[in-house]
Amino acid sequence: MSDAADIGLLNLRWAQTLVDALAAAGLRDVVLSPGSRSSPLALAFLRQPAIRCQVILDERSAAFCALGMAKATRQPAALLCTSGSAPTNWFPALIEADLGAVPLLLLSADRPPELLGWGANQTIDQQRLFGNHVRAFSAPPLPASAFSTAYLQRLAARAIADSRWPLPGPVHLNLAFREPLLPAGDLLATHAVAACPAAISVAAPLLLPEPQAIADTLAEISARPGLIVCGGADYPPGFADAVSALAAQLDCPIFAEALSNLRFGAHDRSRLCVRYEGFLRPASSLAAARPAWLLRFGAFPLTRRLQDWLRAAAPAVQVVITADSRWPDPQHAASRLIQADPAQTCRALLAGGGKPAPADWRASFAQAEGAAEAVASAAFEVCAHAAETSKIFEGTLIPALLESLPAGHRVFCGNSLAIRDLDAFSGSGDKPLRFFANRGASGIDGNLSTALGIASDGPCVALVGDLTAQHDLGALAATGGRDMVVVVLNNGGGGIFDYLPVAALPEFERAWLTPQSIDLVAAAQSFGVVGERVRSLVEFRVSVERALRRGGATLIEVPIDRQASVARRREFWQRGAAAPV
Amino acid sequence: MSDAADIGLLNLRWAQTLVDALAAAGLRDVVLSPGSRSSPLALAFLRQPAIRCQVILDERSAAFCALGMAKATRQPAALLCTSGSAPTNWFPALIEADLGAVPLLLLSADRPPELLGWGANQTIDQQRLFGNHVRAFSAPPLPASAFSTAYLQRLAARAIADSRWPLPGPVHLNLAFREPLLPAGDLLATHAVAACPAAISVAAPLLLPEPQAIADTLAEISARPGLIVCGGADYPPGFADAVSALAAQLDCPIFAEALSNLRFGAHDRSRLCVRYEGFLRPASSLAAARPAWLLRFGAFPLTRRLQDWLRAAAPAVQVVITADSRWPDPQHAASRLIQADPAQTCRALLAGGGKPAPADWRASFAQAEGAAEAVASAAFEVCAHAAETSKIFEGTLIPALLESLPAGHRVFCGNSLAIRDLDAFSGSGDKPLRFFANRGASGIDGNLSTALGIASDGPCVALVGDLTAQHDLGALAATGGRDMVVVVLNNGGGGIFDYLPVAALPEFERAWLTPQSIDLVAAAQSFGVVGERVRSLVEFRVSVERALRRGGATLIEVPIDRQASVARRREFWQRGAAAPV
C-alpha cells in the first residue's frame, strides 16, 4: 500500500499523462464543472496550455455547451465532473450527441471500487452509466505506482478516435481516484506540462460508394424526373459544390432544408428550392407532382408537409445516402441505401454521366419557387416598416434577422416552432451563414447552452421560443465574454400546439400551451445579460444591430400575438399557393 | 381484439413476410431449434425455398454451428429458437461472433408483453438479452392486422446489413407472438412462398486508407529494415497478392500465422516466414534482431514467443491496419492506426513506391526460415514411417494431416494447445487449404459444432484436444450427412497447462489437467459416428485417408503421451534454434 503522499502525487501524474495525451490526440476544449473527486483531472486540464478550459456550474448546461462547441469546431469536446449524481446531469446532452452524431468525451471522476455499495458519500454505480447511448465506455484501473504511460496515451487516443468513427458520438471514461486526491504542499509552479507529440496517430478511412450501387442508381435515375432532398447534416467539405454539380447534370431541383446549410453561400444555388413549404400546399399544382426518383441526403425531412409529399411519392425509387450505419427512413420507403461519404457519392454519380430529366420537370419547380419567393418578398416589404406590434410575424422577422447578420455568422435555432419557421421563412442568399440546431432528439432542453458552446467558436445568434428559453435560462449565467444574441419568440407558451388537434381540448391551455409568467428581460438582466423587449419589426432590427455592434450577450424578447400569427400564416400560405405556377 | 383464427393467420403471414424479406436480403442459412412459440417463424423458414434449414436440438450447439456456417460462407447465418432459457444458450457462440466479427442473426421467439412478470410459463425478460454484445437489437410490435410490409422488409434488410457493417457481428431480433400461434386447419399446401425481389438494396462503402497516413507510413518504413506480421483474419479477396507484392517491394519478410490463411495457396510465398516459433528462440541470432518498423494486419499474434519478440521490438514504428474500429494492440505499442481495408492499404502503400530494406535484412530471415524448415523436414522423415505409439508427436502429425488433405479442404483448429501446435508445425505449401478457429474469445466450448457449421459448406477436418472434444461432444449428434473428420489429440487433459507454472502445484492434476475417463471412440459410435483410435503416425494417415474416402463423419482419437510430447518439443526446438543461420 502506497502512503498518502505517494497517492496524491500519483493521481496528479496519472491525470496529467491522460490529459497530455488527449491534447496530443487533438482535444482542444473541455468544460469543467467544479467538484472534489475530479480535482486531479481538473488541475491537469487547467495546466495543459493546448486545451481551453471553461467552467460551468450546472453539469447539464456544461454538457450542452460542450455539445455546441463540438458542433461548431467539428472536433470532440470534453466534459469533466465529480462523482455521484453529477454525471447524470449530462444525460440529455449526450442523448443529443448520440442521435445527432456529435463527438463528445465524458470524463466522470469516481470513487474507488471498495467504496461502492458501502454507504460512502456521493458514491453511485457509474459503470456503463449511459448504457448503449455511448459509443464506448472504459474504466481504467486506479492510478498505481506502476501505471503504464503507453496504455494511458492510447486510451486517450482511442477515446478521441471512438468519438469520431465509424459513428461520431459520446464516449465515456469513468476515472476513479483514491484519497488524498492531490499531493500536499505547494502546487503553484510544479507539474505544468507542455503539449507532447502523440504516441499514436489514428487515420479513419475514406468511405467510397460501392461502384455497383452507383451504376444501379444511375440506371434508375438517368433521364427521368426526380429530385434531390438535402436534410439537416454536417456535410463534408465540398458537398455543396458536388451536389449542385450533380443537380446540374441531372437538371433536377434540390429541396434544401435550412439545416442542410446549402441555402446560404457562394456555391451554385440555381437549382435550390427553399419555398416548398408554400408551393407543396394542396392548392398548388406541384402538390400532385410525382417524381420517378428521389436522392436523399442527411436527416429525414423536418416538416410535416414535405414528409407527406414524400409519402405520396413513395412508389418512386428512393435512394438514401448516409456515411454511417443509421437508416434515416421512418417511412420505410427507401429502395436503396448507399453507405458512403455524401460528397464522394455525388462525385461518383456525376462521373457516371447521368442524363438530364425532361426539360419541363425542373422548370415547373423553378417557377413555383420563384412565385413563392415573390410572395415572401412582397410580405416582407409590407411589414418591414410597419410599427404596430401586431405586425410582428415570424415570416418576416426571420428574413429580417438573417439580413442583419454579417457574413459567416452562426445561427442556432431552437426546436419546436422556431426551427419549422426557420425552414419555411429563411429564404436563401449569397452571404454565407452557418445554421445549427439540436435535431438529434429535438428537445427544447439545453438549447441556450448549446448556442453558448457555438458562441465559444465565434459570434452566434440563437432563435428560440419562450418555453425553450425558460427551460435553459441558467445558461445565461455562463455567457462569459461570448458574443451571443438570444432572440426569444414569446408567443405565450407552446405555440406549436396551436397547429395540432389538442388545441381544441378544454385542458389545452393548462397542460399543452403552459403559458409562463416569467419576465425574460428581467431574468436576463439578473444574470448580467442585456435584456430588451421590442414591439415592432423596426424596433427588432434596431435592437439586433445594436446588440451585434455592442458584442457580449443580449436577450431580445419579441412578443408574438399567437392568434394574429396563426392568421398571418394562413394568409401567407394561401397567397403563396395561389401564385401562378 | 382479433378473434383466434385471425391471430394464427396473422402470425404466419407476418412471419412469412419477414422470412421472405430475409431471403431477399441474401440470407441462405438458418439453424432452427425446436419449440412452440417459434412455430410461425419455423414454418415460414421451412417453406422458403431460398433458405436452407438445419435443425439442431441444443441451442448452444445450433449457435456454434451457425457461427461456423457464417465463417465458411462469409455470409450471415440465422438462428431461431423458442422463448425462455432457450436463447440464453446462444450466449457463448454470440460472444465468439461478437469478438470474432462473424455476422449472425439471432431470432428469438417471445411471449407477448402482457405475460412478462405474471408467472406465465417459459417467459423471461428477453429485451436486450445480450446487452452490448450484439451490434443491434430490435423488438418489433406484435403481428397486428395492419402490419406494415414495408417496415418488415426493411427491418429484415437492416438486420442483415447491421450484421455486416461497420463491424460484422451478431444482431438480435426478439419476436413476440400471441396464441394461437398458427392458423387452424390444413397447412399442408397453403402459404408456401417463393423468393421475392428485395424491397431495398444496401451497399456498404469501400474503406480506402487516408492518403496522408499512407504517405507518413512510407516515410517511416521506406529503405529501412522491417517486417509485416499477418495475424488471423478473414482477409478480403486479393489480400494475399497485395501483401506479397508489398513485401517484394520493401524486400521484407512476412510473418504469417496459420490463421492468416497466407501459408497455403498459389500466391507468391517467397517472403513468408512460418517457422518463427523455432528461429525466434533465445539460441537463435534472430531473437535479438530489431526491426525499425512493423506493419501489422489481422489479430494480435497468437503465440507467446512472437508476442514477446514484438514486445522487445516495441521502440519500432508499429503500424496497425484494421478495417474496423477495434484496436488489436494489447501491448499498447502501436504508433499508427490505419482504419481501412487491408488489401486497399497494401495497394496504396505499393503505389507509394517505398524502397527496399538493406539487402542483408531479409536474407537473415530467409536463411533462418530455411534452416528451421530443414529441421522440420528431417523430423518428419524420421517419424513418418515409425510404428510405435510413443512416436506420435504433434510436430509430425500436423504436417501429415495437412499433406493428406485434398486441395481446397477446410481445417478447423481447436483452441488451447491445438491452435498453437498448428501455428508452430503447419509449414506451408502451394496447395490451397482454408483454416478456421474460434479466436474471438478463444474458448474450448462449441468447437465441434463450429466445425459442423463449416462442414455444411464443404468437407472439413477438425483438429482438437480431448477436453475440447468432450466439452462439445453433443455436436456429434447433429453431423447429418456432413463430411467431417474430427481428429482428437488425446493427451489426457489440459496439456497446455504443462507449459505453465501451475504444472508444479500439488493440485495441478485435479483442477488444471482434469484428465477425463470418457471413451471418445465409443461416444462417437453411440452417436452413429465412425470412431477409430490410432497408435502410430502410419495408422493415423491410413485412418484419415480412409475417412476422407468414405465421407460422412469420423472421429479419430490420437493418444498422445504428454511427457514424451513435451520432451520431443524441447528437442525439436533445440535443433531448430541451433541450426546455422
UniProtKB/TrEMBL annotation, chains A, B:
Pathway assigned in UniProt: Quinol/quinone metabolism; menaquinone biosynthesis; Quinol/quinone metabolism; 1,4-dihydroxy-2-naphthoate biosynthesis; 1,4-dihydroxy-2-naphthoate from chorismate: step 2/7
Gene Ontology process terms (BP): menaquinone biosynthetic process
Catalytic activity: isochorismate + 2-oxoglutarate + H(+) = 5-enolpyruvoyl-6-hydroxy-2-succinyl-cyclohex-3-ene-1-carboxylate + CO2
Annotated EC: 2.2.1.9
Class of enzymatic activity (EC top level): transferase
Cofactor, how bound (note): Binds 1 thiamine pyrophosphate per subunit.
InterPro entries, sorted: DHS-like_NAD/FAD-binding_dom (IPR029035), MenaQ_synth_MenD (IPR004433), THDP-binding (IPR029061), Thiamin_PyroP_enz_TPP-bd_dom (IPR012001), TPP_enzyme_TPP-bd (IPR011766)
Domain of life: Bacteria
Cofactor: Mg(2+); Mn(2+); thiamine diphosphate
GO molecular function: 2-succinyl-5-enolpyruvyl-6-hydroxy-3-cyclohexene-1-carboxylic-acid synthase activity; magnesium ion binding; manganese ion binding; thiamine pyrophosphate binding
Pfam families found in the cross-reference section: TPP_enzyme_C, TPP_enzyme_N
The entry's keywords: Magnesium, Manganese, Menaquinone biosynthesis, Metal-binding, Thiamine pyrophosphate, Transferase
Domain Thiamine pyrophosphate enzyme N-terminal TPP-binding, first and last residues per copy: 15-128
The Thiamine pyrophosphate enzyme TPP-binding domain, residue ranges: 431-558
Family in the record: Belongs to the TPP enzyme family. MenD subfamily.
Function: Catalyzes the thiamine diphosphate-dependent decarboxylation of 2-oxoglutarate and the subsequent addition of the resulting succinic semialdehyde-thiamine pyrophosphate anion to isochorismate to yield 2-succinyl-5-enolpyruvyl-6-hydroxy-3-cyclohexene-1-carboxylate (SEPHCHC).
HAMAP family assigned to the protein according to its UniProt record, in alphabetical order: MenD
Subunit: Homodimer.
Protein name, UniProt field: 2-succinyl-5-enolpyruvyl-6-hydroxy-3-cyclohexene-1-carboxylate synthase
Taxonomic classification: Bacteria, Pseudomonadati, Pseudomonadota, Betaproteobacteria, Candidatus Accumulibacter
Gene: menD
